[in-house]
Amino acid sequence: MNHKLLFSACCLSGAAIAGCSEKEPQKPNVIVIFADDIGYGDLECYGARAVKTPNVNRLAAEGIQFTNAYACASTCTPSRYGMLTGQYPWRRDDTGIARGDAPMIIRKEQYTVASLLRQAGYTTAVVGKWHLGLGEGDFNSQDWNGLITPGPKDIGFDYSYIMAATGDRTPCVFIEDGRVANLDPNDPIEVSYTTPFEGEPLGSTHPELLKMHPSHGHDMAIVNGISRIGYMRGGKSALWVDENIADSITSKAVRFIEKNNPKVSGKPFFLYFGTNDIHVPRVPHPRFVGATDMGPRGDAIAEFDWSVGQILETLDRLGIAENTLIILSSDNGPVVDDGYQDQAVERLGDHKPAGVLRGGKYSAFEAGTRVPFLVRWPGQAKPGISQALVSQIDLMGSLSQLSGQPIPDQAAPDSFNALDTWLGKSEKSRDYVVLQSTGTMSFVQENWKYITPSKAARYNRFTNTELGNDTVPQLYNLSTDVGEKVNVALENSDVVQQLAAKLQEVKATERTR
Prior knowledge:
Shape: globular
Radius of gyration: 22 Å
Distance between the termini: 49 Å
Oligomer: single chain
Number of helices: 11
Strand order of the largest sheet: 7-6-5-4-12-1-13-14-2-15
Largest sheet: 10 strands, mixed
Helix content: 10-25%
Structural class: alpha/beta
Low-confidence stretches: 1-21
Strand content: 15-25%
């Protein structure tokens, strides 16, 4: 359909005349594009040469590219929790990597970025990967065949089209506004993370049914020829096809933007778009197969770039790009082999997913949490490259400033207003950043990084990742040693003591506004 003609017809309709104006609301639309497992060196604008990312490059060229930006944690669930709530995930003990049948981790009484913007007059949506739990109470207490509540609507999102967890976990279905999409009531869904269902083949027992084999774990329920974490049966009409996930969620994101065009609605919108790429299992659509020489992992990066391009094209086509703030980042650092035999290791070549950084997903080293971070707002965000220290935890504080909507006293205790820095109007860095990984915590201030002592494992042999854990304090000067090769804690004991004390102070204090 010709969208320009559709818009013209809308304007000629008497019922639509009052709301159909070329004058957009003063408050900008906000889109957060949140990639999954894309590392600091995985995008062309951050130095990658084995994959082309022209749409991400465009965002970088037209906006601000941050080189010193951090996710809240080195794994997905806590990272997303921190960004959406403005509360460090380590302040609670239940924000670890969520099972697919986990109850909702963001409690329904909590204030979120979506709550803030909805109160500020925005229409809000989350599309794509969720991985923050659904329902309340015990594990596997959700009614997968009815209304799944509480859910995103209860924490500020007007519309949702989500994966309950992530691509490698059951249930392998999309959930739209609290109900499983395309579900046949005569074929109900059952989910379990403890007991397999009788008669249902598993990756561990029927490897001959698999089109992609696990390298470690991921050998339970088989969906679309791929075995997962967790068991399920039923819901055949609702099961996703991995090759179509990017198309499905991108089309829903585009439709949300079209439906909520501020030139028609008179209201700004907020879209949190969590892509599935490049998380395992990496099964890009056939049109992206062979886009790189790196196999499915590289091709999935190209697919992610396509999704970004679809968002940009939609904004351009509707004429609303000038009044839309886009933030693009990743939930944590990269991982190559994360559970499937997809040739990611064998075909990596000279590509360095973490760039010059050490570690990766799960790690306390820089590659675990230092991530790509791009901000574009034409005419408002000054294009360039910024070395300012920034953190995703400040999304709430910054959007509060942007929207003029105050944050309640007890909400978002760790989120500050960094809007001027994010828009390139200031080079002011965050005073400090607290980081969470599997086994320890880190504290970054100015050019120093302190990693707390830990008895946790130093190495993940399954993912071939240095975890950054050590029984002694670690201190790195990131201005001269961003690769964290030399621990200088012994010769800088005073700095270690200062940073350790500051970290303890932050942990002991949960500020109010």
